[in-house]
Amino acid sequence: MDSFRTLIPYLRLHRGQYVIGLIAVVIANSVNLLPYYFIRLTIDGLTGQVDGDPATTGIALGTAGLYALGIVAAALVAGGFMLLMRRMIVVASRQTEYEIRRDLFAHLQGLDKPYYDRARTGDLMNRLTGDLSAVREMLGFGAWQIVNIVSGFITAFSVMFSLSWQLTLIVLALVPVIVGVLTYLARQINVRHRLAQEQNSLIAAKAQENFSGARVVKGYAIENREIDDYRAMNLELLRRNIALTRVDGPLRSFMSLLLGLAFGLILLVGGRLILAPDSTFTVGMFVQFVGTLERLTFPMLMVGWITGVTQRGLASWLRLKEIFDSQALVRDEPGRTDPTLRTVRGDVTFENVTVRYGDKTVLNDVNLHIPAGTFLGITGPTGSGKTVLGQLLTRSMDPTGGRVLVDGHDVRVIPLRTLRDAVSVVPQEPFLFSDTIANNIGLGLDNRDLPPVLTGVSVVGAPPPDDIPQQPDPARVREAARLAGLTEDVDGFPQGFGTMLGERGVTLSGGQRQRTAIARALVREPRILLLDDSLSAVDTETERRILDGLREVSRGRTVILIAHRVSTLRHADQIVVLEDGRVTEQGSHDALLAQNGHYAQLERLQRLASDLDADETPSDEQAPRDLAAPLDPEAAADRLPAAPTPEQVNR
Amino acid sequence: MTRPDASDAFQKGFDTQLTRRILHYVRPYLPLVIGGVLLALLISLAAPVFALIQRHAIDAYLSPLALRTEPDLDLLRRGLTGAALLYMGLKVVEFALQYAFTLAIGYLGQNVLRDIRADVFGKLQRLPLSYFDQNPVGRLITRVTSDVDAINQFITGGLVSLIQSSFIIVVYVVIMLSVNWQLALISFTVLPVLFLATNYFRARLRDAFRETRTQQATVNSKLNENITGMLTVQLFGRERRSALDFNLSNRALLSANENSVKWFSLFMPVVAVLGQVAVALILYFAARQILGVDASGAVAGAITVGTLFAFVQLSQQLFQPIQDLADVFNNLQAAMASSERIFGVLDTEESITDKPDARSLTNFEGRVDFRNVWFAYDQTVTADTPDTDERWILRGIDLHIRPGESVALVGATGAGKTSVTALVSRFYDVQRGSVNVDGTDVRDLAQHDLRRHVGVVLQDVFLFAGTIESNLTLNNPDIPHERVIEACRYVGVHEYILSLEHGYQTEVRERGATLSTGQKQLLAFARALIQNPDILLVLDEATANVDTETELRIQQALKRVMQGRTSIIIAHRLSTIEHCDRIVVMRRGHIVEQGSHHQLLEKGGYYARLHRLQYAQADAAD
Ligand SMILES: Nc1ncnc2c1ncn2[C@@H]1O[C@H](COP(=O)(O)OP(=O)(O)OP(=O)(O)O)[C@@H](O)[C@H]1O
Ligand SMILES: Nc1ncnc2c1ncn2[C@@H]1O[C@H](COP(=O)(O)OP(=O)(O)OP(=O)(O)O)[C@@H](O)[C@H]1O
Ligand SMILES: [Mg+2]
Ligand SMILES: [Mg+2]
């Protein structure tokens, strides 16, 4: 129930609809009892007519006709109110579903990298679809059925009580049984539904990964293993679903059983009442009593059903709440964020920056100053923290210790929008959307003046949303593509910039994808440009062209370039070597060469490879010998199974 | 941001062909089905008995007619007790039947769901890569989730209540007719109206329902893409635009839903009112008969009060299954639409299949021959498409690789290097010419065999959620742990893995989110070695994001690995490939030059220029 309380804000948005709808339910329920009243009057009249006893009042056919008309009239009124109820409550539940989905989406947009590092797409999708509909069912049918049941019971019981208190007591005696069984089953359903939904999430995530990793699955021919896995997971789902059915299934039939027992008892006791010598209990009253009780059949069955629906709904709502409850660490915070900061010059300082994941230190007391408009190169071994350093600048996450300053302001003070408008990133593994190339390049354009989608408000009365202009300025897109050395490729495609990309850009070559990402960053004309190993997939010639283009546009901008190749870095104003999360060397290309440290070694190694040819020496182990390899690859290589030689195979 | 999903649109209504295929999935569970149908039959037979018992009790023991003739109260009471006990006993039986029925149907539905899922998933494993290039993952997921669910619904909810409702209707009609045919006919007069109304609403509801499904699919695929690309959306400040765009679809879904509520909310009251009209008719005509009979002094008891009461109940109970049938038809519509899409997947031509007499590779040397290969990803391109068409990706590739030779592919980005390697694994089929492995056209080989012998390190690393070890072994239980460690030592990632808290059992997040790009690449490299491609090794930019020291170390180690293995290596860093036996330079789908490093340098062509560029850049400092 506690979890229900958190849903109340959403219900409150549609208070009016729910109130009207629920009143309509009560009215419809009361009016619905009228037909049996008319039936009773008719039957009593008829029995009076036929029993030959002049003391009992008889009935004329015309009166019976009036009663019949009364039944139809009552049905029409009740039907009208039912219609009203559905238009109010069921529509409200759909609207709430929309609102929750809208708000979840907005919430997801505010979550940060640490959250998405943990999240699984398939699981999130399952929550946003399956769980959301379970909640909606609870709100729609659940809400009106609960009132339906309560008001149905109250009206029916008062009628029944007025007819015969003895019989009513018999029926009431069943209530504790109902409550007991329901409570037990409800708990079971809640638990088992959650288990089933968790398995559903796992399966969805499995499918998601298998489909997105199709190249690996096929490349290593592991399809059969994948199929076996998937089957096993589905078998488990079957078990859990059957377990759910075991407790979910008997609910309905159990209610019908209880009701049947009540009918039997009433027949037994009620019959005796009629047969009692001077009874005031007539057959007509008996029929009305049974008929009224029968009106409760549906609500009773619904009690079972609704227990299932609410339990599932609540369990699912908890799973949605988990999303709502996850807070981004990185966000604008009133009081801390300074909304007056609108522009950025591009002066970046890292001050005693430390980043830890668990007990693993990834960046260790990094101090770095990048004056506005300068070009910084970063290099360092794999896993030394280069990417993490870049992510601090865009506030994809916050450092564990120390500060990152832009123009002297802690980035945590700068509004996220301002910061991210000013910094453009070419991520190491760019994500492209399945959209046209032009739209992908224009991804960061013209987003500034758009109105927000309001959250936490009712959709009732909201004007239909306007279409949003989609086309980015083609001239700017083209210019950015030129700078990124992409024009030639794109012009070679039959549809040019209108070419649709596959998901994540799979229909492009690796280098084309990377250059699209470069163009996407350049087109925003950012104050600070961050390229994370962004030339790794392009050939030397193209790299040269891009670097030239970059120099052309980067005048006055701060450029941070992460790279492994000295040839890429050499023109930087300042080069930083990161090793194991520490800045170990810092200075210009020449200064670093003079230092004769890691960078100089790097330069030597890379040049050496070229020199080998200049010396006309056949490529042998000379170069790698230089590597004081701590883990002696040759020893390892000796143990690794060498491939059978062709001769061996041919035997 | 997502393109409209044309295949999610609905085209067809009821289709016997489709139904037959759905039923095909039910066949293995025939005993369950028969049991379920029997149970349903019993339940529907039991249903009207209760009203009849009440009628009997009223007429025989309670009605004044019975009271009038010298009532033996004891006898009446005893009769009453008997009737009541019978009533309750039958209820208990009905409960047992109902529960058994629910379980049987649940079991049936879950099994069918599992079977269909397994089929669709298995089919998707056999479909070629081009299928995955064209279909967003979100759409494929829908196939194995909500579409399969719709069929499950149809079988458990639809098909079963179709059978049950039909039974009940027949049983009730027969009983009502036999109890009193005049009253029965009178109450049936409402039925034609009910049928018309139901039909009318069914059509409206179906259209509304289709619309909601289409909108739901759009919403889902947008969600999927936004979730996977959320960090990019945030970096580029696109949240608002995405939110607006999503809101548009979300609102459209809401409108579609509201529209179906509109029709449904009309439908239910209309049915209820019609039910009460039937009751009123029964009441009036029964009263007329009872009164008329008495007035004329004709045979009394043609209609008793008990009969009147039973009819009121029976007619109302008859309405329920008729309404249920309306639901069934809606279920059926949904199932038709979903099954159409599912069978659409199942029927997709597997353009890359094993020939029936596919040869398995037992005796693999590692010879690879490209014979005048013309290839395009666009499947509308055929062998007859003119050479000048710009959709061709590879244009007449002739490349012969000897067993044990190491060949490097270089060339500008987009030249077609990755495409060449994709053809060796037969991810795609060529339009002209042939790709041969050991002299056999790859189209004549069993795909699994072929790929098991080829180890590929892809340009884009893909890691699965799981552990580091499971990513390396790909869940193959036969791979010993030592082998995993050896390979990781080899590529120099072993120490890093050990530094993690759980070592090889460290959890890997979706797509390896918590690893650095270079680390992922190293893992992918190790994976390829662990999978032990006995002959052919394909490295596509396998060390592009790795630092120079590690790269050199790997190269050093590679020399040994490559002994006796054929290898194809793609790299932009020329230093990575200089030691290869042969270097092949590609440009726009052509091979422009090939030879050893020195030959190519001497030749002074494209490669020499590339080399000069890199060399010059590195050397300019001196
Ligand atoms: N799955 C695909 N569907 C359609 N077109 C594709 C697909 N993959 C690649 N292409 C296109 O084929 C051409 C060659 O791509 P390929 O990946 O073979 O290039 P590459 O030489 O490997 O380039 P890079 O060095 O950038 O990786 C490119 O123009 C690319 O757009
Ligand atoms: N979200 C995370 N959770 C835990 N560890 C992380 C996370 N992100 C990065 N790391 C770890 O931090 C270290 C630094 O990672 P980073 O991506 O910055 O390396 P890098 O210098 O960019 O390397 P590369 O050259 O391979 O790209 C790595 O050991 C990595 O495993
Ligand atoms: Mg990195
Ligand atoms: Mg490639």
Q: Return the domain count of chain A.
A: 2
Biggest contact: A-B, 228 and 224 residues
CATH-wise, what's the superfamily of the largest domain in chain A? ABC transporter type 1, transmembrane domain
Overall spatial form of chain A: elongated
Number of helices of chain B: 21
Strand order of the largest sheet of chain B: 6-9-10-3-11-12
Q: How would you characterize the largest beta sheet of chain B?
A: 6 strands, mixed
CATH architecture call of the largest domain in chain A: Up-down Bundle
Which bin fits the share of residues in helices of chain B?
55-70%
Taking pLDDT < 50 over at least 5 consecutive residues as the criterion, the unreliable ranges of chain B are 1-13, 295-301
Cα-atom Rg of chain B, whole angstroms?
A: 37 Å
What is the CATH architecture assignment of the largest domain in chain B? Answer: 3-Layer(aba) Sandwich
Q: What name does the CATH topology of the largest domain in chain B carry? A: Rossmann fold
**How would you state the average pLDDT of chain B, rounded?**
82
Assign the structural class of chain B, choosing from mainly alpha, mainly beta, alpha/beta, alpha+beta, or little secondary structure: alpha/beta
Strand content of chain A: 5-15%
CATH class of the largest domain in chain B: Alpha Beta
Helical fraction of chain A equals 55-70%
Count all strands of chain A and give the number: 10
Helix/strand/pairing category of chain A: alpha/beta
**Assembly type:** heterodimer
